[in-house]
Amino acid sequence: QQQQQKQRSEQQAKPAAKGPPNGKSSAPLVVDITKDDEHDVLSPLYVQRLRGELEKLHVERMSAERDTKAREDGKLLKRLEDQQEMYRLKAEAPARPKLVITPEEEQRIKSILNGPSDVHLIVRFGIEMDRRSLCTLQGMTWLDDKIINFYFNLIKEHCDAGALPQNVHTFTSFFLESLSNGYMRVKRFTRKVEGTIFSKDLVLIPVHMGIHWCCGVVDMKRKRIEYYDSMGGKNPDFFATIRSYLVEEHKDKLKKPLDLSEWTNYAPGTQVPQQENGSDCGVFTCKFALFRAKGTDLTFSQDNMPYFRRRMVLEIVDAKLEL
């Protein structure tokens, strides 16, 4: 009896093991948001169920003063809230018009692209557009500089005619290459501009990165230099180059210094439409330029690229943009 009493006393003297409230496991919360057997991936119903589970566990952890785990749960809750907000906005967004090439247009596109490659199908803006260049709009082919330069000039022509709301000047793909050898190499590039480029709303600049096309924009009204890259690049050298050019051009054409202290750089990276292959950067670049000239949001995506390629064949041959 004395031995049993001693054992009971020792057990009572031991501190009670501390555990989670209600005897629940304190294992870290792991929620797999990549798949679900019952619901679609990240469907609104699945997100709602996850939020319910997380909120319950979040309250339990806060009451147990498990601060670190609670913060982790809070971050995941915020992600799910953002996901629900995305679904809400998508549901409320007006339906976009379906982009379609009619059978008659498709037949015409085929007839344009079939034939001798060296035949000039249209000569405009000092560019002899042959079938070889137009065929780069087929499939997954990289666009050549004739397509890019023609399309940028076509945007400017529509702006000049009042079909687009912005007053625009466009450079060719040779501008930045020439500028890399000093301002004097591009000094005469704007000699035919009515007024100066500083009287324009926008200056559109195709940027060729060797095997990749991007779109540069100078927004004179906003005092902002912009860089749109369908692969998420931000290219700080572009901003330095354009700032230097603007200073020299202002000094040469307006005979006074340009204060850039209020000017900003804008490189949205992956926040703009992104390509999902290694071939469509040229098409994205043309559409970045067009949508900026239209003054509208960049509401296109990779899914639209096959349509845009076919449509651009007709736009170039007819010298008329679909707006």
Short note summarizing the structure:
This protein has helices at residues 2-13, 44-63, 67-92, 103-113, 131-134, 145-160, 174-179, 236-254, 281-294, 305-318; strands at residues 120-124, 127-130, 168-170, 202-208, 213-219, 224-228, 264-266. It is α/β, with parallel strands linked by helices and 323 residues long.
Observed structural traits:
44% helix, 323 residues, five-stranded mixed β-sheet, alpha/beta, 10 helices, two-stranded antiparallel sheet
The helix/strand order is HHHHEEHHEHEEEHEHH
Distance separating the two termini? 98 Å
The radius of gyration over CA amounts to 30 Å
What is the beta-strand fraction? 5-15%
By DSSP, the count of extended strands is: 7
User: Would you tell me the structural class of the helices and strands?
Assistant: alpha/beta
Describe this structure in words.
By secondary structure, this protein is of the alpha/beta class. The protein has helices spanning 2-13, 44-63, 67-92, 103-113, 131-134, 145-160, 174-179, 236-254, 281-294, 305-318, and strands spanning 120-124, 127-130, 168-170, 202-208, 213-219, 224-228, 264-266. Helix 6 (145-160) runs parallel beside helix 9. It is globular, with a radius of gyration of 30 Å. It starts with a helix and ends in a 5-residue tail after the last helix. Residues 15-41 have low confidence and may be disordered.
